[in-house]
Amino acid sequence: MLELQNLSRSYRGIPAIKNVSFRVDAGEIVGYLGANGSGKSTTVKIITGLLHPNDGQVLFEGKSIREDLVSFRAALGYVPEEAYIYTYLSGLEYLQLTGRLRGMPESLIRKKATRLLELLGLESWRHSPIFLYSKGMKQRVLIAAALMHDPRLLVFDEPLSGLDVVSSRLFKDLLQELAEQGKAILYISHVLEVVEQVCNRVVVLSRGNVLADAPPSELTRLMKLTTLEGAFAQLVQQQDTRVVAHQLVEIMKVDHA
Ligand SMILES: Nc1ncnc2c1ncn2[C@@H]1O[C@H](COP(=O)(O)OP(=O)(O)OP(=O)(O)O)[C@@H](O)[C@H]1O
């Protein structure tokens, strides 16, 4: 369904991603992992059409997304990492605006928006301005907004940030249900335990290069490790965090001995 072909992008001559290729098929949940600054957001901006690649292309159902960005966006549901949301609107108004921008009929907008807010536990807040919402509540509004138009492809960028235990569990179940309905899902997250539980495949990015593209269980098996977190740390050669933590505390104590 979604296919990234040899995407490269530099900022002022410095490469952010290099030859990134992978696909997300219908019914699949693909995790996109990488350390801070490895190029995940750059890739997502290219997929959502916000940024042009210097090289390569993004295909959706076999066609370049650039050929018809409007139809592609109609098939895309995107939950951004940061909630750049119109906070003076209420949750209901925000969903209504989203539905109108998607060209949905008013009666359907009202019905879907009300029900989605109810199911996400925001019913009693639906008329309150979003600036009164907590981080997790804003996140739930963004998730509802991404579902309004029944997209075929969903891109979730760190969707668990701010969600409490119950909402996180609901979200994991939602991902599975969406995949069962044949949606293609790209899931960007640093929460590797969840990625390991929900993703069919993970693509690991390091300094702009794809290092691995495999099911989590295969990665851990091949690397003779028990968790995805261990495999990830070894793949991207992360520093020994215990040593660094010790050094941080040592430097903190200087002059206070
Ligand atoms: N607008 C920009 N101008 C210059 N450099 C940029 C810009 N955006 C990103 N970069 C650089 O490109 C590289 C990849 O950044 P990107 O934001 O894609 O990484 P990321 O994997 O999403 O990181 P994080 O996990 O911290 O969100 C980094 O070195 C970053 O400094």
Account of the protein in words:
The protein has ten helices and ten strands. Helix 3 (91-101) packs across helix 4 and helix 3 runs parallel beside helix 5 (135-147). It is α/β, with parallel strands linked by helices. It has two domains: 2-75 and 151-253, P-loop containing nucleotide triphosphate hydrolases (Rossmann fold, 3-Layer(aba) Sandwich); 88-148. It has helices at residues 40-47, 69-74, 91-101, 106-119, 135-147, 165-180, 192-198, 216-222, 228-235, 241-253, and strands at 2-11, 14-24, 29-34, 55-60, 63-64, 76-79, 153-157, 184-188, 201-206, 209-214. The protein is globular and about 60 Å long. The mean pLDDT is 88. The chain has a six-stranded mixed beta sheet with strand order 6-7-8-3-9-10, sandwiched between helices. Strands 2-1-4-5 form a four-stranded antiparallel beta sheet, covered by helices on one side. Residues 11, 16, 34, 36-42 line the site of adenosine-5'-triphosphate (ATP). Adenosine-5'-triphosphate is lined by residues 11, 16, 34, 36-42.
Determine the CATH superfamily of the largest domain.
P-loop containing nucleotide triphosphate hydrolases
Give start-end ranges of low-pLDDT stretches.
none
**What radius of gyration results from the CA coordinates?**
20 Å
Average pLDDT over all residues: 88
How far apart, in Å, are the first and last alpha carbons? 60 Å
* Overall tally of domains: 2
- Per DSSP, what share of the residues sits in E-state strands of 2 or more residues? 15-25%
Largest sheet: 6 strands, mixed
Bound molecules: adenosine-5'-triphosphate
Treating each run of at least 4 consecutive H or I residues as one helix, how many helices?
A: 10
Please tally the β strands and state the result.
10
GO molecular function: ATP binding; ATP hydrolysis activity
Pfam families: ABC_tran (PF00005)
Protein name: ABC-2 type transport system ATP-binding protein
Keywords: ATP-binding, Nucleotide-binding, Transport
